[in-house]
Amino acid sequence: VANDHVRIIEVGPRDGLQNEKTSIPVETKIELVRRLAATGIETIEAGSFVHPKWVPQMAASDQVLASILANPPKAPHDITYQWLLPNTKGLDNYYKTMDASPSDAYPSPPPSPSQDSGPAMNTSSQDPNAMPSATSGVDAMSQSRASSKIPSGQTHEVSIFMAATEAFSQKNTNCSVQESLDRFAPLMASCRENGYNVRAYISVALGCPFEGPDVDPHRVADIAASLLEMGADEISVADTTGMGTAPRTRKLLQTLKEAGIRSEDLALHFHDTFGQALVNTIISLEHGIRTFDSAVGGLGGCPYSPGATGNVATEDLVYTLHSLGAKTGIDLEEVSRIGEWITGEIGKGNSSSAGRATLSR
Ligand code: HMG
Ligand code: MG
């Protein structure tokens, strides 16, 4: 691990906030993304395009996206923004926001002189000459038009999500595991044709709130293989409930390896409900995993996973990784300040030990 680069996907603005019961002003959400972008974080999951009745807190994600496009957050290097969505309806809404004139979609302040918000296109991720897709149910035309609106220094990606158990799949997305896979085929085809990378989450991979801790690792491996075959660029294996233990995490990672799934195609997404997230991170590092999801301040939780608490705190993850000599590019002190600020904004305790300790030094 020493000297290795470990990629952190900051999911605070999405997973971190989605479960909060009190409505958080969209300005606070945008400010959170802006502050995070300045810390050296490379990838931010900034919102979701899900049904607003199912997850009311994410209803303003289109405004967050529009603001990022209209007034790019200042960052030390290029940032990848990810947008979570479950179906082609969510993808259509994402395309519509991408396609809309930012000034129509969100009243954004003029960019400050120090910010690079020029009209240059991000040609690395978007192909403006891409042929419109004929994929049914998805407004694929919009992407080719939208590509010219992505400012330089930004890449946008889609994250999709499904579950390793039937009970959780029904509760979270109102469909079976197989129906999820069927939904994703046209969705991923559209994303691929239009130049958007796709990461795919497999929820409840180490424990299900309805079916218990013993989720079959072979089932997880089969789903991961199907998603990769369909074109997913990365699989985020999620311990939604925090039930994962060191032995079961090891068993899952061994099973994935035996199924031919490469560690470079995997990310791990630990919730810290039982305080095992960093233990399981160490096990994952030993298995060659170099991408992890986390949320600043240890925010987070899934509305359809009763009792599940926050993601592993970004500050704690960064502290542990740096102690092992790994490089994250993230400024621990800066991210700790954001954890303190956002937990205060939403009236929650800061659950990051490393964050609190860093600030009191
Ligand atoms: P459904 O009711 O079965 O949807 O919900 P439907 O396809 O039958 O459509 C019903 C209506 O909803 C229609 O409108 C659709 O247009 C509309 P109508 O014709 O009746 O006016 N609709 C939508 N509207 C906005 N955005 C959409 C959308 N889709 C349909 N995307 C659905 C199915 C998947 C939509 C619903 O179950 C849902 O939104 N679930 C989201 C749940 C969620 O967001 N959970 C949290 C995120 S996952 C998570 O936290 C886990 C993760 O962190 C990893 C881990 O830790 O495990 C990622
Ligand atoms: Mg989660």
TrEMBL record:
Q: Does the keyword DNA-binding apply?
A: no
List, alphabetically, the SUPFAM superfamilies matched.
Aldolase
Gene3D superfamilies reported for this sequence = Aldolase class I (3.20.20.70)
Write down the top EC class of this protein: lyase
Family annotation (InterPro entries): Aldolase_TIM, HMGL, PYR_CT
Pathway assignment reads: Metabolic intermediate metabolism; (S)-3-hydroxy-3-methylglutaryl-CoA degradation; acetoacetate from (S)-3-hydroxy-3-methylglutaryl-CoA: step 1/1
Domain of life where this protein originates: Eukaryota
Keywords from the named record: Lyase, Metal-binding
**Residues covered by region (Disordered):** 96-154
* PROSITE patterns (UniProt xref): PYR_CT
Task: Provide the Pyruvate carboxyltransferase domain boundaries.
Answer: 6-336
Q: Which GO terms describe its biological process?
A: ketone body biosynthetic process; L-leucine catabolic process
* One GO MF term attached to the UniProt entry: hydroxymethylglutaryl-CoA lyase activity
Q: What does the record give as the reaction this protein catalyses?
A: (3S)-3-hydroxy-3-methylglutaryl-CoA = acetoacetate + acetyl-CoA
Coiled-coil stretches: none
Question: Which portions of the chain have biased composition (kind: Polar residues)?
Answer: 121-154
The UniProt record lists the EC number as 4.1.3.4
Family matches, as NCBIfam families: PRK05692.1
What family does the database annotate?
Answer: Belongs to the HMG-CoA lyase family.
Designated name of the protein? hydroxymethylglutaryl-CoA lyase
